[in-house]
From TrEMBL, chain A:
NCBIfam families linked: NuoI, PRK05888.1-3
GO annotations of cellular component type: membrane
Region Disordered, annotated ranges: 1-25
Annotated keywords: 4Fe-4S, Cell membrane, Iron, Iron-sulfur, Membrane, Metal-binding, NAD, Quinone, Repeat, Translocase
Protein name according to UniProt: Unannotated protein
The family this protein is said to belong to: Belongs to the complex I 23 kDa subunit family.
Source organism of this protein record: freshwater metagenome
BP GO annotations: aerobic respiration
GO molecular function, one term: NADH dehydrogenase activity
4Fe-4S listed as a keyword: yes
Signal peptide: none
InterPro entries the record matches: 4Fe4S_Fe-S-bd, 4Fe4S_Fe_S_CS, NADH_quinone_OxRdtase_chainI
UniProtKB/TrEMBL annotation, chain B:
UniProt keyword terms in alphabetical order: Membrane, Transmembrane, Transmembrane helix
NCBIfam families, per the entry: PRK06076.1-2 (NF004741), PRK06076.1-4 (NF004743)
Protein name: Unannotated protein
Residues passing through the membrane, by range: 12-36, 82-102, 122-143, 164-183, 195-214, 252-273, 285-306, 318-339, 351-371
Ranges of biased composition (kind: Basic and acidic residues): 399-409
Keyword Electron transport on entry: no
Classification via HAMAP family: NDH1_NuoH (MF_01350)
Pfam families per UniProt: NADHdh
Region (Disordered): 390-409
InterPro entries, per the entry: NADH_UbQ_OxRdtase_su1/FPO (IPR001694), NADH_UbQ_OxRdtase_su1_CS (IPR018086)
CC per GO annotation: membrane
């Protein structure tokens, strides 16, 4: 699996380029017949494998740590990790992130603890995919996926809302808002001590 | 019957039909050539090239043409409107006209008439092609001038200077062919190559023609007029839409025309490869057309190959090469060829001819050796010169005291 995910560029990429980086020892201009060898180079290349990837039909995996679209992650019980602290927005050099935090109501939590991100927007017309927001995030709520197909035909569609960015609800999760896991604090959530949702939190998704 | 006699009997409708066919073939070849060139160059660069429109992207050229036609047709305010419109028309007309004298086939049955696929056969056919090619230069120079802008003017001047200088070398390279075939008519030159192609017996002429035809058509590595980094788009910078399409068409038809002329004069025209003469009878003689276009496409492939391989020349190097190498060499070659021709016609002994040839080869080696030596000396002198002060004016280097005064006031 890991091998499959390696980008193909290594085939003709840096390693190969370095191989041919022998030091140039001869500064004399090549003789006329040596220069003619250039024609052989282009002719021979015609019969070599092409580097083109037929993109829309054939999609090659990106590098494993490719900076693609962002994702807002969830705790295992379905609560959002984002606490609306705006550190990502402050870290952003392109001013692409807008966050509005709000207070959690006890029993109808969106995230563990006091605050959650009520509005979360990333403007992909401004985002430069530098990843500083990911470094800034204190709860590991914001990460980046490998998805790179981010073209669209209006500006509005390229401002992603919270719904567009949130990770999917998986089996064992309860869609927020719902109470926190019984007898836990936000600290238990951050330490990863909440393995999955408790029946008292609501209807558990199971597919 | 010779081609000239066959063509002389053509009724009017056949002449008209041939004209239409030549036009259609040129346009279709251009469209396919654009596609072919892009595909071949792409393969040379490990790419695929256009492969989206139609099977293998075959319709790419057609679609590009439609796109060009649908674009907005701009005429700049500063342009001379009439000349601006006429220039591309001159350019494209001249290119098509040179095809009139190219024999595309031998004797064939054309709707019940015995004729040859050649529109007309002039006794001075090749001169006519050269004359028409120089009319085509007007298209370039007028386009550059009438655009009312600096870059097109410079590009137009460059192109015309280039085309004119390489036309000299081209004309000189053809002289040897005239001397050997004893005719300037294209069909007779083809017939004269029954035994040996002139590409073989007049090899230096062939090489000079091949080089100058690339210079003539403003193609890489001699595409200085389109040096994007220096001149934007050259003479057609201000052109758009159909007028640009006409220049585009002219460029490619010109390539095909010079390739066709090269085929006719040096590669035996519509004749089959030596040893495959029996194929000329296939399809009632129509198979000669296949041979002709196979040779033309070979030349076209070489054009593309050059473009994929060589970097663009500097303008002064290019002009030096044309005037100081190609023209003197072809002049000397003509001298040798005509001497040999006269000697053999006047019945000189084989010994005299052989010794003359030997003398020429000897002189060639002596001259080139001396040239190499002087070149080396010049290079060494240049190295010494480089290490001394530069030979162009440079601002004075202020000494440290003055500098300190300047800075501290």
């Amino acid at each position: 699996m890991a091998d499959e995910l390696m980008p193909r560029s290594n085939e003709n990429g840096l390693e190969k380029a370095n191989e041919s980086k022998a030091p140039i020892t001869n500064n004399e201009p090549a003789t006329f017949f040596k220069q003619l060898l250039g024609f052989w180079v282009t002719f021979r290349t015609m019969f070599q494998k092409v580097n083109t990837v037929q993109y829309p039909e054939v999609k090659e995996p990106t590098a494993p740590r490719f900076h693609g679209r962002h994702q807002l992650n969830r705790h295992p019980d379905g609560l959002e990790k984002c606490i609306g602290c705006e550190l990502c927005a402050w870290a952003c050099p392109a001013d692409a992130i807008y966050v509005e935090g709000a207070d959690n109501k006890p029993g109808e939590q969106f995230s563990p603890g006091e605050r959650y991100g009520k509005v979360y927007q990333i403007n992909y017309l401004r985002c430069i995919f530098c990843g500083l927001c990911i470094e800034a995030c204190p709860t590991r709520a914001l990460t980046m996926t490998n998805e790179y197909e981010l073209a669209d035909n209006t500006r509005g569609k390229l401002i992603f809302e919270k719904e567009d960015l949130l990770g999917p609800l998986r089996a064992g999760m309860v869609p927020p808002p719902h109470p926190m896991y019984p007898n836990t604090t936000d600290a238990n959530y951050y330490r990863g001590e909440v393995p999955n949702a408790h029946p008292s939190q609501g209807v558990i998704k199971n597919d | 019957m010779t081609n000239a006699e066959l063509i002389a009997q053509d009724p009017g409708w056949i002449i008209a039909l041939k004209g239409v066919i030549i036009f259609a073939v040129c346009v279709v070849l251009t469209i396919m050539a654009v596609w072919g060139e892009r595909r071949i160059v792409a393969r040379m660069q490990m790419r695929l090239g256009p492969n989206r429109v139609g099977k293998f992207g075959l319709l790419q050229g057609l679609v590009d043409g439609v796109k060009l036609a649908l674009k907005e047709d701009l005429i700049p305010k500063a342009a001379d409107r009439i000349v601006f419109v006429i220039a591309p028309i001159i350019s494209v007309t001249a290119c098509f006209m040179s095809f009139a004298v190219i024999p595309l086939s031998g004797e064939v049955n054309f709707f019940g008439h015995k004729t040859a696929m050649q529109l007309t056969d002039l006794p001075v056919g090749v001169l006519y092609v050269l004359a028409i090619a120089s009319v085509g230069v007007y298209g370039i120079v007028l386009a550059g001038w009438s655009s009312g802008s600096t870059y097109p003017l410079l590009g137009g001047l460059r192109s015309s200077a280039q085309v004119i200088s390489y036309e000299v070398a081209m004309g000189l390279s053809l002289v040897a062919v005239f001397i050997y075939s004893g005719s300037m008519s294209t069909s007779e030159i083809v017939e004269a190559q029954n035994q040996w192609w002139y590409a073989v017996i007049l090899f230096p002429s062939f090489v000079i023609y091949a080089i100058s035809m690339v210079g003539e058509t403003n193609r890489a590595p001699f595409d200085l007029a389109e040096a994007e980094g220096e001149l934007v788009g050259g003479f057609h910078t201000e052109y758009s839409s159909l007028k640009f399409a006409l220049f585009f068409l002219a460029e490619y038809v010109n390539i095909i025309a010079v390739s066709a002329l090269a085929t006719t004069l040096f590669l035996g025209g519509y004749h089959a490869l030596p040893g495959l003469g029996f194929t000329e009878q296939w399809l009632g003689g129509w198979f000669t057309v296949v041979w002709f276009f196979a040779k033309v496409l070979l030349f076209f492939f070489i054009f593309v190959w050059l473009r994929g391989t060589l970097p663009r020349l500097r303008y002064d190097q290019f002009m030096q090469f044309g005037w100081k190498v190609l023209i003197p060499v072809s002049l000397a070659w003509i001298l040798v060829v005509s001497t040999l021709r006269v000697m053999s016609q006047q019945g000189s002994s084989r010994f005299a001819i052989m010794s003359f040839t030997f003398a020429v080869v000897l002189i060639y080696f002596i001259v080139t050796t001396f040239m190499e030596k002087s070149k080396k000396q010049l290079q060494e002198a240049a190295i010494v010169k480089d290490s001394a002060a530069p030979n162009f004016p440079v601002p004075e280097i202020p000494n440290s005291k003055d500098r300190a005064e300047q800075l501290n006031g």
